[in-house]
Amino acid sequence: MQVLVDTSIWSLALRRPEGRLSKTEREQVAALRELVEDGRARMIGPIRQELLSGVRETAQFEKLRRELRAFSDEILSANDYEQAAHWSNECRRQGVVGSGVDLLICSISIGRRWQIFTADKDFRAYAKVIPIQLSVR
Predict the structure, then answer these.
(1) Which of 69, 80, 85, 86 is the most buried (most CB within 10 A)?
(2) Which residue range is the domain that position 74 belongs to?
(3) First and final C-alpha spacing in the chain
């Protein structure tokens, strides 16, 4: 099964020094490596943008940009965005508020039957309302 890797996981692997990772975070980075090696890790443009945003040094930005170029972006359609809005509305009706990018990730994963690999606890709340499948690592 393909896995849409959330910003939180990519960030651990690409932006944080290994010496500053907890045991759980090191395990998540190892799981990401396995997904990459198996060719199952997927990327979307909004996640790429989140990863590259806030990088202060130009050299660090360029290094990260080059590393991310190894992963092509999944092509998104109007339906992906419309479904993200639908899921956002459904979550709000049930008292769960999420970001636009998070709900887009949910929409893409539902539409393509992919798992989501994330360290972001908000996705557990979304999973109570909408039919996403979280990758348990």
Answers:
(1) 80
(2) 1-137
(3) 14
Q: What is the mean pLDDT of residues 46-55?
A: 94
pTM of the prediction?
A: 0.93
9, 117 Cβ separation under 8 angstroms: yes
For residue 109, what are the CA distances in angstroms to 23, 41, 117?
27, 12, 10
User: Which of 63, 53, 9 shows the shortest CA–CA distance to 34?
Assistant: 9
- Largest CA-CA distance found in the chain, in angstroms, rounded: 44
CATH of the domain at 126: 3.40.50.1010
DSSP string, the chain: --EEE-HHHHHHHHTS-GGG--HHHHHHHHHHHHHHHHT-EEB-HHHHHHHHTT--SHHHHHHHHHHHTTSPBPPP-HHHHHHHHHHHHHHHHTT----HHHHHHHHHHHHHT-EEE---THHHHHHTTS--EEPP-
pLDDT band per the 50, 70, 90 thresholds, residue 137: low
Question: Hunting for tokens 């999420």 — which residue is that?
Answer: 98
> Domains in the chain: how many in total?
1
